[in-house]
Specification:
elongated; 8 helices; alpha+beta; HSP40/DNAj peptide-binding domain
Length: about 300
């Protein structure tokens, strides 16, 4: 998709105040409004102006957009950076206000982004609640524990610019927390004004991909390499689990892709998840005279046709 320079669309510099951005938007909106404009492509230009203002009028979206840097140019191919929006804290309850905007906007601020519809997942957000994302390891989700995180909270300054404050929090990670689940920190959202209560902070949990295990709900799966003789003759093997290695029996005559189950070895819960062990038969390389001789012997002595079902 193409990068969009929202400052260029409104004709302002990156250091413009919020008041200057508002004035520039009003001028551009009058110029390109489809009901009065005689400009070519006025309707398309008007949509671009609306989209740019949607981002730059909001201190949170603007601060996040600014972190992309100024090296991008309009029309250049763009892909959101990894972990886009991580460590940003923003107001909840806004929903996805960008329906009908460009793919570029949706990739940064749409419903699938941290700035999209944060009301999903069953959490009820008030106007003073804040929302952020926390990335944890699968082991953290299994064992639970305490994490110290640093969040960035954008705000509009008195002179109309955008500043980003950082603050540090200690977060309790409950054992068995699921991907996408919300952790609520009471009173850690928008500060109280006058006699009103402070908002809450909702942390949306994202579990990072693991080098060994795949997660689905509370269940985890592991691909276990086995030798041909272990699959054919059976074996007692040590298998990694989130709680530590366990001994597992591989039945004789096992096949590649076969799934074995270790009960209650997934994430804790009521009920706990299981661990699925998927067998992967790995062939030794025929890279020595002895290995080649063994394969030649099997070809002669075993009446084996792996393609018999195709005939």
């Amino acid at each position: 998709m193409e990068f969009r320079d929202y400052y260029a669309v409104l004709g302002v510099g990156r250091t413009a105040t919020q008041d200057e951005i508002k004035k520039a938007y009003r001028r551009a909106a009058r110029r390109y409004h489809p009901d009065v404009s005689k400009e070519a492509n006025a309707e398309e230009k008007f949509k671009e102006v609306q989209e740019a203002y949607e981002v730059l009028k909001d201190p949170e979206k603007r601060a996040a957009y600014d972190q992309l840097g100024s090296e991008w140019r309009s029309g250049e191919q763009f892909r959101p950076p990894p972990n886009w929006g991580r460590d940003f804290e923003f107001r909840g309850g806004a929903g996805d206000s960008g329906r009908g905007f460009s793919d570029f906007f949706s990739s940064l601020f749409g419903g699938g982004s941290p700035f999209g519809d944060v009301g999903g997942g069953g959490a009820a957000y008030a106007a003073r609640d804040h929302h952020a994302r926390i990335d944890i390891e699968l082991e953290d989700a299994f064992r639970g524990g305490t994490r110290t995180i640093e969040l960035r909270r954008p705000r509009a300054t008195a002179d109309g610019h955008v500043a980003v404050d950082t603050h540090t929090l200690k977060v309790g990670i409950p054992a068995g927390v699921l991907d996408g689940q919300h952790i609520r920190l009471a009173g850690q959202g928008e500060p109280a004004q006058r006699s009103g209560p402070a908002g809450d902070l909702f942390l949306e949990v994202h579990i990072r991909p693991h080098r060994l295990f795949q997660l689905e709900g509370r269940d985890v799966s592991l691909t276990l390499p086995v030798a041909p003789w272990e699959a054919a003759l059976g074996a007692q093997l040590q298998v990694p689990t989130l709680g530590g290695p366990v001994d597992m029996r591989i039945p004789p005559g096992s096949q590649a892709g076969q799934k074995l189950r270790l009960r209650a070895r997934g994430l804790p819960g009521q009920p706990p998840g299981d661990q699925l062990v998927i067998l992967k038969v790995v062939l030794p390389a025929a890279d020595t005279p002895q290995a080649k001789a063994l394969y030649e012997q099997m070809r002669r002595d075993l009446a084996f046709d792996p393609r018999s079902h195709l005939k």
